[in-house]
């Protein structure tokens, strides 16, 4: 397999900026980075590692926008330089994703993995620490930065009163997925949104049992699973009266596959590798219908 020996990044107190929303973002980014190392060599690597890299790009873009808003409102003198660094870091992670899409083997190298390992951590330790003095405790700037949230882009997902369309803290989610790495990726995205109630089912049988035990608002389910596949799971869930919004994720994407999923009763369909942004859009629109 040729997987490089790379240690996971440990979240430590010295990575703390001292602004809870920023520290929470950094933790999500660190866990996505760690998933890069976990998913190298996965049996469905294109779907898992591809989804992690996509999500890393999405979340990086969002986090940088939030951090720049924070610095802007706080009047931080280093804003222009910090923005330039962010642009550079974004271009680097986008380049790695592109490289993976063109030649998956190319991201297995120790060099790439070590690069990614320090890619963000060095930025937090160096340049993010530099804006602390200007921003920690600045409630106005922190409030403005809080308004830049991952679940809405430039305010367009906002209702009139400025509240997000979905109150993620109250959404119950069931994930029916047999790939352990994919379970963790989905969990990271859900947690980053503030979802607290997440149930994991490793196959269709467990999924049906979970549906009977609690009533989820949203079900994310894989298509290809051992024994009972996703289509069968959805058909049985609907036959059993489940009203949950169901999003199916699959490595296949032709129209026939989509049509079969819709006929079985799914609300939306996502092609693997997923993107965090694509997942968010699908979940938001399913839940607000
Ligand atoms: Fe930064
Ligand atoms: Fe940051």
UniProtKB/TrEMBL annotation:
Modified residues (4-aspartylphosphate): 222
Entry-linked SUPFAM superfamilies: CheY-like, Hemerythrin-like
An individual GO BP term: phosphorelay signal transduction system
Domain Response regulatory: 172-287
Pfam families assigned: Hemerythrin, Response_reg
This protein's record includes keyword Secreted: no
Keywords: Iron, Metal-binding, Phosphoprotein
Keyword Manganese: no
Family annotation (InterPro entries): CheY-like_superfamily, Hemerythrin-like, Hemerythrin-like_sf, Hemerythrin_metal-bd, Sig_transdc_resp-reg_receiver, ST_Response_Regulator
GO MF entries: metal ion binding
PANTHER family: TWO-COMPONENT RESPONSE REGULATOR, TWO-COMPONENT RESPONSE REGULATOR ARR22
The family this protein is said to belong to: Belongs to the hemerythrin family.
NCBIfam families, per the entry: bact_hemeryth, hemeryth_dom
Protein name as annotated: Hemerythrin-like metal-binding domain protein
Organism placement in taxonomy: Bacteria, Pseudomonadati, Pseudomonadota, Alphaproteobacteria, Rhodospirillales
